């Protein structure tokens, strides 16, 4: 497992990841997407499991789903499970908002 810290404070992370937006971030060699509901930040893989389109171009619904821009498949941003569509689940990453930034855990490749 690799640990990354984004930003230097909770306030900075809240600014970097506006609520309901999707931000693409580079962590080492890996790109992931982040979105936020309140003070909970969700991390998930950057490309749709269906046809590898960038999910940063998609949007987040009020029902805690990310919607892919190409075929509108929907994934739960907390668990990654497919809510609408026919492909594997989305990979999600563990995050923790702390006073010194956002801690993100990525599995080893
Ligand atoms: S590429 Fe994402 S739903 Fe088809």
From TrEMBL:
InterPro entries: Rieske_2Fe-2S, Rieske_2Fe-2S_sf. It holds the Pfam family Rieske. Keywords: 2Fe-2S, Iron, Iron-sulfur, Metal-binding. Residues 14-104 form the Rieske domain. It comes from the Bacteria. CDD domains: Rieske (cd03467). The keyword Iron applies. Gene3D superfamilies: Rieske [2Fe-2S] iron-sulphur domain. The keyword Iron applies. This is Rieske 2Fe-2S domain-containing protein. It comes from Mariniradius sediminis. The lineage of its organism: Bacteria, Pseudomonadati, Bacteroidota, Cytophagia, Cytophagales.
């Amino acid at each position: 497992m690799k640990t990354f810290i984004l930003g230097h404070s909770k306030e900075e992370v809240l600014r970097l990841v506006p609520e309901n937006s999707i931000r693409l971030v580079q962590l080492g060699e890996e790109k992931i997407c982040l979105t936020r509901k309140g003070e909970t930040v969700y991390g998930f893989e950057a490309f749709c499991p269906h046809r590898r389109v960038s999910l940063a171009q998609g949007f987040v619904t009020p029902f805690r789903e990310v919607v892919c821009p190409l075929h509108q498949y929907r994934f739960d941003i907390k668990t990654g499970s497919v809510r609408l569509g026919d492909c594997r689940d989305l990979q999600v990453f563990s995050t923790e908002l702390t006073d010194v930034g956002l801690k993100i855990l990525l599995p080893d490749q």
